[in-house]
Amino acid sequence: MTATLRQTATAVANSMIEGASMASALIGGAAGAYLGYQLAPTGWTDGTRILFAGAVAVVGAVAIDGLAELVLAPMRRLMRRTPFNVTRASAPAPADNLDDALAQVATATEADAAHRAAGAAIRIDQGDNFLRDEDRWRGYEDGEASFYLAPGVWLHHRAEVGKYGREHHFTLLTGDGEQPVVITGMEQIRHHLAARAAGLPAVPVTADGDVDGAQDDVLDDDLTGIHAV
Fold first, then answer.
1. Radius of gyration of the chain (CA)
2. Which of 36, 132, 157, 192 could form a disulfide bond with 117, CB atoms 3.0-4.6 angstroms apart?
3. What is the rounded distance in angstroms from the CA atom of residue 117 to the CA atom of residue 135?
4. Higher pLDDT, 26 or 206
5. How far is residue 111 from each of residues 117, 160, 217, measured CA to CA in Å?
6. C-beta separation of 207 from 185 below 8 A
7. 55 and 35 Cβ atoms separated by less than 8 Å
8. What would the pLDDT profile of 81-106 be if each residue is shown by its tens digit?
9. How crowded is the C-beta side of 226, counted as CA atoms within 13 Å?
10. Can you spell out the DSSP letters for 126-156?
């Protein structure tokens, strides 16, 4: 199951849970209204009986919805904590020779690199709907991966073993010879794309939110109100 399909399945399941909650409230309200009208003294006017039935309908809706929530609440928690199982493709048949084995390992390495890049992207994108989409990452045989952002702009991922374990590095690369820029947050990517869209020097903001170089004030003024496409 791909990341996009998994997100769709999660959205459908959440919609079904919320639909069940709404249905229980409607059923409780309808039952309460019927019983309230039937139990109202016949000596009351129709208007009074209707008001009484409405009050009972509200009580019925709240009561039934509360009972249904005893079942739906655990389901909501389960949906938040337990992701859908990912269905992976079957492993290829054992290779007959070294060349075939090398080709299989190369393909697996590329897939592994894309998977690791998408997982590590949580460090700069916690939205779970953009950089963490594994299908949009392209892995390479050297274990690195790239994410296409716009014509001439890619986000590059590289992992290496550091002093405290595996370290992940994200770098913004362009096809026009600009200096690669270390990326630590989505706001830097947004700033870079906004600058390119405005035809300005694409100097991404640094980690502290400033713009590199002496063009700080110019870029800040020119980029006001501009959003990345």
1. 28
2. 157
3. 11
4. 26
5. 10, 17, 43
6. yes
7. no
8. 555 444 556 778 898 999 999 999 99
9. 18
10. -SSSSTT-GGGEEE-TTS-EEEEEETTEEEE
